[in-house]
Amino acid sequence: MTIVMPLSRPRRSAASRLVAAGLLIGTVDGLWAIVLTFIYGRSLTRLWQGIAATAFGERMFDGGASTVLLGVLMHFGVAFAWSAVFLLLVTRSAWLRRVLDSPHGVLKVAAVYGPMIWIVMSAVVIPLLTRRPLVITGRWWIQLAGHVVFVGLPIVWSIWRGARGATAA
Fold first, then answer.
1. Among 10, 32, 38, 73, which is most exposed with the fewest C-beta within 10 angstroms?
2. Cβ contacts of residue 66 below 8 Å, gap of 6+?
């Protein structure tokens, strides 16, 4: 008779979970943004400069590599910020931890958290920074739906996976 016992990884620290989540979401969401940029027929330079222009104005489109780098850094900064918010929510809410432990809990939470991020960013943060009102178009709805898979899921999965530890056969 053979007994197979799963190997268990210890819970990761909050800091390591935050780093993993921030890097994962920054990368996954960034790749998704790149794909959408190609679909919409725009340039990668304009994508990243557009992110920088959100906070620093239209002059970012006149910059070169430095404004592209600024946009990439801002993108990852936002990814880390939303990951930190979720980490705080998980550590403070027993109800949220119970939902995450339920069947398909990560997907349930991601289906709410990802779109919530897009709504807050597109309806509050970006309009405040650019002084332009929210305009809802087909692309806005694509972003809303995409934020379940490309934003919410990586954040929720990576933060929760690290909180519970992982098992492997």
1. 10
2. none
Instruction: Assign 3-class secondary structure to the chain.
Output: CCCCCCEECCCCCHHHHHHHHHHHHHHHHHHHHHHHHHHCCCCHHHHHHHHHHHHHCHHHHHCCHHHHHHHHHHHHHHHHHHHHHHHHHHHHCHHHHHHHHCCCHHHHHHHHHHHHHHHHHHHHHHHHHHCCCCCCCHHHHHHHHHHHHHHHHHHHHHHHHHHHCCEEC
Q: Give tens-digit pLDDT for 147-166.
A: 999 999 999 999 998 676 43
| Residue 118 to residue 147: CA distance in whole angstroms | 7
